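Response to reviewer comment R2.3. The reviewers asked that we include at least one raw input/output pair. We reproduce the pair for Gfo/Idh/MocA-like oxidoreductase N-terminal domain-containing protein here without editing.
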Amino acid sequence: MKKIGFIDYFLDEWHAEKYPEWIESASGGAMKVAYAYGMKDSDTGLSNAQWCANKGIELLSSIEEVVEKSDYLIVLSPDYPEFHEELALLPLQSGKPTYVDKTFAPDRATALLLFDTAQKHGTPMYSSSALRFAAEYAAAPRQGIETICSIGPGRFDNYSIHQIEPIIALMGSDVQRVMYIGTPNSPALLIGFADGRQATINHFGGGCPFSLTLNYDSGDSSILRPESDFFGLFIKQLVTFFETGEATVDPAETIAIITIIEYGFKAAQSPYHWVELPS
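Raw output as returned:
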């Protein structure tokens, strides 16, 4: 049995809670989350020690220990990407397959640093929103997409990735500029591609399900609603990544996604003006 190590900001959070059972099931028991490290205890939930005791996972006192004992590594902290550099640098120097949870990095510079570190040390690594793997999105024809309108719930800072990731997966990473077109209560961003194609993301609050409306240069259109078990599909991809060491997401796409998020914040300071992205 292959052992997986969790490295997290704090362990009592939704992803850490769900992933162990899902991974063990998807791997047919061939993989198990055996070790965990949390930088701090949750301010509102269980301590790291209590969480590990409940899950039957061994709590270790350092990232180094988790890296040393584990076959595969998962850097979590899904809502605190500002800690990913500190949490991920040692794993990315280990040569062991490492998954870094969404949102990958707080800015483009950190994203480039993490990928560069992994490449220098021969460490297989990727990051993704689980929405990328929704069956409805994966089955959509990519050729000829002219515009996409995306809607979904949540705040821009930690939920925009769930709209931007499928757009980049479908339209590619050649993004040139962004424009903020939203309001404080309903953030929205216009994404401009180098060849003139466009996409928009719109946050409409907690009751708004994710969906994409695609328009093609042929005049055809389609509405995609991710009703499949996209987390289950993501976990299957993750298990395959650990087995093969082959990343399923192009680093250029992940870097583009993080760049869009970073410059989306900058665009929000001057709405309705294009902000050019670095090349």
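DSSP finds nine helices and 13 strands in the chain. The longest helix spans residues 251-267. Further pairs are available on request from the corresponding author.
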